[in-house]
Amino acid sequence: xxxxxxxxxxxxxxxxxxxxxxxxxxAFSIGTASFLAVLNALWLWKRDPVYLKLFEYWKTIFxxxxxxxxxxxxxxxxxxxxxxxxxxxxxxxxxxxLMGYEVLTAFFLEAGFLGIALFGRKRVGDKxxxxxxxxxxxxxxxxxxxxxxxxxWMHTPAGYSIDATGAFLPEDWWAIIFNPSFPYRLxxxxxxxxxxxxxxVGGVGAWHLLRDRxxxxxxxxxxxxxxxxxxxxxVQIFVGDMHGINTFEHxxxxxxxxxxHYETHEDGAPLxxxxxxxxxxxxxxxxxxxxKLGSLILTHDLNGEVKGLKEWAPxxxxxxxxxxxxxxIMVGIGFLMLGVGLWSLWTRWKGTLYSNIWLHRAALLMxxxxxxxxxxxxxxxxxxxxxxxxxxxMRTADSLSPVDAPAVGASLVAFIIVYFLVFxxxxxxxxxxMRRVPVMDEDHELDKGPHRAAGIMxxxxxxxPIREGLPNAD
Length: 474
Fold this sequence. Notes:
disordered C terminus, mainly alpha, 6% strand, 474 residues, two-stranded antiparallel ribbon, globular
């Protein structure tokens, strides 16, 4: 069960595996919750049934995604105790409250209003229902805020002291919450969630337009998704650049790994478009470079200095291969998103947004691109943080529980089997829901039947006595 790996590597793989499954669901549900709020607001404003039907169509998909996100997230919290108990013991005074605040604010808010948002339209009225839908959307954003704050603190720790036992003690909660990388990481993460949802919605809309370009529901969802692609993608690219500059300031070794630089460039670093980083040989093989462009991007100066990995001892360097390629996957997908968004603006101006088959095919292919991009970005930032859990202070090797490799390997195999069965079935069902044609006369089980048993009538009402001779009911 160990596959020849140490307990530390197996525990890291296990956490990465479970987080990868978990991350795709909140990345989708954050954007979908806001999308539902917009659809509901448009229905209340315009009273156009198409928005109500789209709301009903996507609310079922959101409910399943939200549920799978909650279930997959619970598993990770247990790993803090089973595999990373030393980290929990030493950093728990900082990380624990942040995660607790997420439950007390965001999760309770979502749980309190989720039932009303999904099932309460006919029970509480339009205004309260709209408020509930908005609160669910706000709750997902608050949840992202707290979790991102906790993760950002591990990258750029601030506002703490360390006692004699090596435990982190909170000294300034404002500094802890609003640590140096938090604003950039939060904005980048939320925009990524919006784009993930936009391209998923756009892919579904494109799928149905390829079968019936006159379907108004498909036209509306595709149009809204393409507006998001065209308007938000450039903002995301700008925010990503700002996030990169912040990382360059606080985690220069991560940047060196992402860029594939082993040597320090004092008079301008090239941008390596492609290559194969080799940590043992301390070089990037087959590098395809653009001179000085790397310094221009990172320092906004053609001759800006960019440090290479050789500036750090080998045991203090992050592995370069994974961040190098995942970063390029994320950036490449970002520019493909931008291309699709600009293409949609051109077809919108030409009046062919709903008839351009090649745009629809491209949008369909780009449907899952947001999920790939967020996972690639997460791998970049987390692998790039190694060999630390708390950057520059607490090493990953020192955060591990006293567990044996066979135990971690056995649980990893169990996770892989169970996750692929359970969440594979869930994703399959979601895809089946998305294949349904969003039509105007769609029925929903929640809208059928009486709300109380007292409303059930076993047969037609009788105006006359059932049998002759019985007294009249009057």
